[in-house]
Amino acid sequence: MPTQPSVLVFDVNETLIDIDSLAPLFGELFGDERVLREWFGQLIMYSMTVTLAGRYVDFFTLGQGVLRMVAAGHQVQIADDEAARLQQQLRTMPAHPDVVAGLTALRDSGFRLVTLTNSPHRPGSATPLENAGLAEFFERQLSVESVRAFKPAPAVYQHACQELGVTPADCMMVAAHVWDTLGAQGVGFGGALITRPGNPPLPVDGLPQPDLVVSDLRELAERLTIS
Predict the structure, then answer these.
(1) pTM of the model
(2) What is the topology classification, in CATH, of domain 7-17+93-225?
(3) Would the N or C end of the chain have less CB density within 10 A of its end CB?
């Protein structure tokens, strides 16, 4: 790494909390739990498309629309209550088993920990991070809603720096998605890729590679705290 970061900025969905917990719902709706990955890939693609088109709707609303689009392709009917179940489950996904131990080690080592998520925060409602029992580890929970653009738009990462009073060089983006580390590295962050299942590095010459590639947060803590 060029410099040791003082601020670790964590993605939430799939990085800290487990989207595979949604698989039974997709198995029920489509008869195939693998449709979860089709839906999630389309959701990420259309979040980026919405931003490039200069539009914005919140991530969970977009997720319901993409669910109906994917269902139409599979010739499946989605009832309103089924779409509502997806939104509810998006807010209540559990943490990955390694997360508490990893965050504890990083916090105890003196790193500032914050989150930066595509998911919306609703006044009066618990955030997905709070529902997963992880909020206590983080000094701030930042959402793309503040800039009405989805990651990896540069403005999202720049806004995080402004909110925290730091420079990009102070920060490392920790994410399970190369598109997120690429976006953050594009504005001067470091990047750490957590290789959750199905999320390997992107080996393309000419693109920045993550400064760290680790299997989980415990390994991240070990790598960052080695003297």
Answers:
(1) 0.94
(2) Rossmann fold (3.40.50)
(3) C
Q: Which two tokens stand for residue 57?
A: 């709707």
- Burial class of residue 203 in the structure, from the number of CB atoms within 10 Å of its CB (0-12 exposed, 13-18 middle, 19+ buried): exposed
CA distance 147 to 155: 7
Helix (H, G, I), strand (E, B) or coil at 139: coil
Structure tokens given for 205 = 């010459």
| Whole-angstrom distance, CA of residue 25 vs CA of residue 150 | 25
What's the CA gap between 10 and 188, in Å, rounded? 16
Closest CA to 128 of 139, 146, 147, 115: 115
CATH 3.40.50.1000 maps onto the chain at 7-17+93-225
SS3 88: helix
Confidence class of residue 1 from pLDDT cuts 50, 70 and 90? low
**Where in the chain do CATH 1.10.150.240 domains reside?**
19-91
Out of 1.10.150.240, 3.30.750.24, 1.10.4160.10, 1.20.1300.10, the CATH code matching 19-91 is 1.10.150.240
Whether a cis peptide bond, with omega within 30° of 0, leads into 152 is yes
53-80 residue pLDDT tens: 999 999 999 999 999 999 999 999 999 9
Yes or no: say if 146 and 114 are a contact pair by the CB < 8 Å rule.
no
